[in-house]
Design goal:
This protein is α/β, with parallel strands linked by helices. It has helices spanning about 60-65, 80-85, 90-95, 115-125, 205-210, 240-250, 265-275, and strands at about 20-25, 40-45, 45-50, 75, 100-105, 145-150, 160-165, 170-175, 180-190, 190-195, 215-220, 255, 280-285, 290. It has one domain: Metallo-beta-lactamase, Chain A.
Length: about 290
């Protein structure tokens, strides 16, 4: 598949038989259009090992990608907004065949937003929106596995790194996104490093160091270079993305979260970004798969 602009990928999805691949389950944001909300899947040797931000539309794309929920080593949220988390109950409801625990990680909360643990309880708990799924939070679920939810710090600048399997190691660091707690994730899979930033401003200036040496930096192109007002305090501009990627020495940059603010402005965004970073640049589209 080639580099995308404004159209969606039409080819059947294909991730290679071997190695590490990033697949786009959703390339959009909160808008009601033909793009799912920004969501990603990491494959290793034909096995989906990590699901990032199961937002609206991601469950359908997951099925279209041919992934198996039983294969996942972890699910991570970059924040707890609806466009990062809304399809999570659908994944759980359709999780036939899984028998081992499912680790779920995301940011802790504040006075305005719930923590990841509280969000999952509100969705799946006995008093939650979908009490029929509550057994998945215990060892009494019908499929024989339990969801294990853990909050990671979303304040300060300390790196969290307390999860690893034979196939996947995770680290997280707090990022600034207005008053919403958020974290960026660093996944090490098969000797490759992928960093998922989610939505963030660069006020804390931590992402470049966190993403140092990344084989792929998956970052959100939420606003154009000339954006003004509140959004400049919540999102990075293209030129800032370029600086971050250059400082991190990222091998490849994938631009997700493509909404009406930036769709159709790819040339301007590329120009601003490439003032600082001249490596491979991908404008994400639905179900595209990129090998590392």
């Amino acid at each position: 598949m080639g580099f995308g602009t404004t159209g969606l990928a039409l080819e059947a999805p294909y991730c290679g038989d071997e190695g590490v691949w990033i697949q786009i389950l959703g390339s959009g944001g909160y808008e009601l259009d033909d793009r799912g909300a920004a969501s990603y899947l990491v494959w290793r040797d034909q096995r989906a090992v990590l699901l990032v931000d199961p937002g609206p539309g991601s469950a359908v794309r997951f099925g279209e990608a041919g992934a198996d929920f039983a294969d996942l080593d972890a699910v991570v949220f970059t924040n707890v907004s609806a466009d990062r988390t809304a399809d999570f109950p659908s994944f759980v409801a359709g999780s036939d065949g899984r028998t081992r625990p499912l680790p779920v990680f995301g940011p802790d909360g504040n006075d305005t937003f719930p923590s990841t643990r509280e969000l999952v309880e509100r969705l799946l708990g006995r008093q939650g929106a979908y009490p029929g799924l509550a057994d998945y939070l215990t060892f009494r679920d019908p499929e024989g596995y339990r969801i294990s939810v853990r909050d990671v710090p979303a304040t300060g600048q300390r790196r969290w790194a307390r999860f690893g399997t034979d196939d996947l190691t995770l680290a997280a660091i707090p990022v600034h996104h207005g008053d919403m707690p958020g974290v960026a994730w660093r996944a090490e899979v098969g000797g490759q490093v992928i960093v998922f930033t989610g939505n963030f401003s660069n006020r804390k200036d931590v992402v470049a160091g966190f993403a140092e040496g990344a084989d792929a930096l998956v970052i959100h192109l939420a606003i154009p270079e000339g954006a003004r007002g509140l959004v400049r305090d919540r999102y990075v501009r293209p030129s800032q993305i370029g600086r971050i990627a250059q400082r991190a020495d990222a091998r490849m940059v994938v631009l997700g979260y493509r909404t009406s603010r930036t769709l159709g402005r790819e040339t301007q965004s590329r120009t601003a970004l490439e003032q600082y970073y001249t490596g491979p640049l991908v404008f994400a589209n639905e179900l595209e798969c990129w090998g590392l």
